[in-house]
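Please decode residue identities from the backbone states below.
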């Protein structure tokens, strides 16, 4: 056990461990001081931080650009929600079905693309096409109520029901915080593993990696399946937090774009980049929305314009993302962190 811990955290500067510990303690204590609105914002931040790490495995580690990651969110959400609504199966049992469903969808896309050497922008287009196909399909699927929306029963509870994910937002906050921390630890373990080095070789030069004897098809498939499965968990939490699902809302390409913005702004391929990006984008975007609402200004699309401006500024000024730049400024120079 000690060897595993040493491997996971070895090489991280002491200052980095201290800062990470302070941040974790601050997040653990946050619900004690946060109001209902701030708590909701923090839940959104952790949601995008977690899901950004899942996407980062596929793109940042293995170099496969997915622009349809909302597909896996939707499959996870609809699978668990439908099982709960129709059969009374709890979300944690439903998760055992939702993750394989999303993983199989990822494997299907990966097989089509990688077996026939579809890569780059064409792979990205394929992910968009399948997500759009799912949106149209679920829009006409009566079992999940189609375009009318699937609604989960909401009851007033005097206590948190963790098993059925019914309760106060604080419960969801700590679930997402735990998931985000575990995802960070898992991503670090993956990146330091033999497979992680193979992924990075494929990302940098796939032909060279294949020439070196790396089974690029297999390792890209593994990256897609892991990323899809992890993402579906976020979908389950999404469904039971909001208690309603609409295909146009869940599978829309704008949801996929929101997923990838955090890692891009924070730093694609880094471990902490997706988390930092989620704090920056979601935090500032919600602050902007609250400010405009407080001033009585109704400006449709303001959040999307803000996202575009942030992305443009990062691409021009910090093409590697905010985290690599910040890491150097605070003296954390470990590669890949």
């Amino acid at each position: 056990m000690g060897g595993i811990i040493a491997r996971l955290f070895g090489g991280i500067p002491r200052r980095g461990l201290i800062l990470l510990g302070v941040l974790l303690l601050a997040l653990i204590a946050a619900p004690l001081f946060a109001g209902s609105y701030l708590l909701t914002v923090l839940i959104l931040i952790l949601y995008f931080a977690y899901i950004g790490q899942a996407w980062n495995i596929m793109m940042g580690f293995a170099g496969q650009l997915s622009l349809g990651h909302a597909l896996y969110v939707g499959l996870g959400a609809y699978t668990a929600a439908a099982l709960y609504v129709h059969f009374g199966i709890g979300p944690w049992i439903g998760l055992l079905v939702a993750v394989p469903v999303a993983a199989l969808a990822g494997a299907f896309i990966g097989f089509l693309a990688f077996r026939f050497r579809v890569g780059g922008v064409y792979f990205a287009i394929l992910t968009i096409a399948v997500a759009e196909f799912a949106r149209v399909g679920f829009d006409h699927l009566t079992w999940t109520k189609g375009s009318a929306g699937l609604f989960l029963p909401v009851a007033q509870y005097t206590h948190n029901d963790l098993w059925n994910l019914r309760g106060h937002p604080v419960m969801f906050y700590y679930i997402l915080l735990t998931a985000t921390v575990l995802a960070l630890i898992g991503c670090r373990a993956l990146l330091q593993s033999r497979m992680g080095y193979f992924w990075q070789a494929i990302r940098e030069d796939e032909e060279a990696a294949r020439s070196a004897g790396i089974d690029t098809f297999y390792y890209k498939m593994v990256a897609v399946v892991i990323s899809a499965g992890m993402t579906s968990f976020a979908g389950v939490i999404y469904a039971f937090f909001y208690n309603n699902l609409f295909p146009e809302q869940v599978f829309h390409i704008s949801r996929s774009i929101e997923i990838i913005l955090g890692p891009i702004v924070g730093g694609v391929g880094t471990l902490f980049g997706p988390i930092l990006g989620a704090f920056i984008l979601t935090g500032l975007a919600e602050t902007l929305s609250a400010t405009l609402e407080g001033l009585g200004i109704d400006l449709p699309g303001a959040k999307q314009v803000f996202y575009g401006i942030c992305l443009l500024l990062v691409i021009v000024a910090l093409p590697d993302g905010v985290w690599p730049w910040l890491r150097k400024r605070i003296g954390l120079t470990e590669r890949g962190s």
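Observation: The chain is about 75% helix and 0% strand.
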